[in-house]
Design a protein that fits this description.
This protein is an alpha/beta fold. It contains ten helices and seven strands.
Length: about 220
């Protein structure tokens, strides 16, 4: 019995440590705490994905829509979205799901191909469709940016694969913001923060224009 007790203590500590070491775990725990204090209403427009959504602190005001729930986190990849899908989307009852993710998959390694990112997206999409068969799903294309411009070919190829796939899906929309963020074939310089990766208000203005007819209708 003593050995069993020690084993259970060791197992508990190991699992707790494992949870603490998971990427973005603190953000997920913060979501859980927020949801336990004030459970989100049914019928929200759910924004999920990586930091381009996470930094969008004015998203409710920008769309004049208090029913937007932002559950984007860290520098999430689609693999991270799959890992935390229960906390960020599956436990809710959204009216629409808006996704921005895939850019960090491409940026994670030169060996990550558009086909690999596409397969990850299809895996995540299949789970969403199984849980929400009739909920509109909106995918915002991978954006161009100055910092990652050398990756543009893989990003554009990934966008093309996902766009062609969503054309064949029910209640699915692909929103391209790629061309609108370019000027003379290069990323606009005045739409990014100093890191040349994340957007400033000028950048988000482009996204608002592209998404407003979809988010609020």
């Amino acid at each position: 019995m003593k050995k069993l007790g020690l084993y259970l203590v060791f197992l508990f500590l190991s699992l707790n440590l494992l949870g603490q070491n998971k990427p973005f775990w603190d953000e997920i725990k913060a979501f859980r705490t927020a949801d336990s204090i004030a459970p989100p209403k049914d019928g929200m427009v759910l924004f999920i994905g990586s930091s381009s959504f996470r930094y969008w602190k004015t998203v409710q005001d920008d769309f004049h829509n208090p029913m937007i729930l932002n559950r984007a986190f860290g520098g999430a990849t689609l693999l991270d979205m799959i890992a935390y899908q229960e906390d960020i989307v599956l436990k809710f009852h959204p009216k629409k799901i808006v996704i921005y993710c895939g850019e960090n998959d491409i940026a994670s390694a030169e060996t990550v191909t558009p086909e690999m990112v596409f397969d990850r997206f299809k895996t995540f999409y299949a789970t969403l469709r199984s849980k929400f068969p009739d909920t509109p799903i909106v995918y915002v294309s991978i954006k161009p940016c100055i910092l990652r411009w050398a990756m543009k070919d893989r990003m554009m190829a990934t966008n093309a694969l996902i766009q062609d796939y969503l054309k064949l899906q029910k209640d699915a929309v692909f929103v391209s913001i790629w061309d609108e963020m370019l000027e003379n074939g290069m990323p606009k310089k005045n739409i990014f923060r100093e890191d040349n990766l994340h957007m400033n208000a000028n950048g988000y203005a482009i996204w608002i224009k592209a998404l407003e007819p979809i988010v609020n209708h």
